[in-house]
Structures are given as C-alpha cells and as structure tokens.
Amino acid sequence: MKTKLKILKVFLGLVILGVLVGFSVRKNACRKVESLKVIIEHQKNNYFLNDSIVKNIIEEDGQPIMDTPIGNLDVYEMEKKINESPYVDTAQVSKDIYGNIHVNIEQKEPIARVNTAKDEFYITTDGKRMPISKVYSAPVIMVAGDVKEEDYVGLSDLIQYINTDNLLKNHIIGIQKVGQRSYNLIVNKGNYYIELGTLYNFEKKLKNLKLFYDQYLGNVGLDYYKKISIKFINQVVATKTNENE
Length: 245
Known about the structure:
2 domains; 27% strand; cell division; Cell division protein FtsQ; cell cycle
C-alpha cells in the first residue's frame, strides 16, 4: 500500500511539474521580443555590417521584430536570411526565455579591391567575389585590369603573402593585370614598376626581389631603374631609367 502511495505521489508530482512547465513555455512563447542583441566580429577592422543593417535584413518581409511574439520566431530562418548577405561569413541566432534575440556574426574578409573596365568588387581571403559596400570601404590593395574569376584564388594567395611581409606590404600598393596571365606590381616610391609575370611560383620571385633590394637598390636609389623584372624564377632583370628596353 505504501509503495502504491509513493508511486501515486511521484506521478502527481510529475503531472504538476508538466503543467507548470507547459504554462511557462506558453507564457514565454507569447512574450514579445524585448531586445535584439547583435554582436559583429570586427577583429579585422571591417565594418560592412552594423546593428541597423542586420535588423533590416531580419525585417525584410515587413514584420517588425519587436512586435513579434518570441514563440513565433524561427531562428533558423533568421540565420538563413543573415547568411545570405554577401558580407556575412557565418551567423548564429538564438533566443532566450527573457525575450531576447541574440545574433552573432563573423564577416567576410576582403583582401583586394578589383577595378576592371566594367565592374568593381572585392576579392576575399578565400578567393571569392564580394560586392562593394555603400557604407564602408575596406583599406585593401587595389587590383586593376581584366581580372577573371579563375584569377581570384591566385591573387588572394599573392596578396596574403605580401601582407605577411613588412617590406613588401609597405612597398607594394597595387597590382595591374597586363596580359592574359601576367601582372605588374605598383610601388609607392620611385618611378619604376615590378614585372611579376604569371602568378606561378610568386613566393620565389618575391624572395629574389627582396635580395635585389638588399644588394643593389639601396646603393643606387629608387629612381635609378624604370623596371625591375622578376618574371623569371631564377633571375632579376633591371632596366635603368636612361636605358632603352
């Protein structure tokens, strides 16, 4: 008899607990959104997105989020909308029992700004195309010429290599595509340019360039040459300013 009474008490306790939990869930589901808390990763100093832009993305169907019961919100659909932004790398959305919506965003990282005869866009660190923003302009290296989609990854790799070297990063300010697969590097000082050639084995070519700087350019000055060619992997060919090519 005592055993049956204990079982009955446990059963009644579970029923009461279930009722209370159900009531709490229904109450919280009817609660309207209290706040939208947006955290955007800005470690790379990119500001393509802000709280207002994210809010507009979420409300693009015309339904103000602050007037919506939190139980009616589909966080997965919200994540999908935000991830469709060309400036978003990853987005995570969650909601809590207090009526708060939490949005955490990591932005894509541009590595170059490309200007062709017909278009202008960014290339990201993973070699993808990203549109120009109306609210922010990233301070990245400029690339000009007839850049094709198949060039994106190679250019991204080249520029990331340049950015990891203080000498190259402070010296090379632009890239010009001059042929189907050939490139020139534009420098910030001096009246010369660097003929890179193709992107093949660019690491070796740039190491040769640095050796040339150390051994020769420091002795004669920046205006002594009009072109420095590193298109051949095993040599550097420099053309003097007063020399006919």
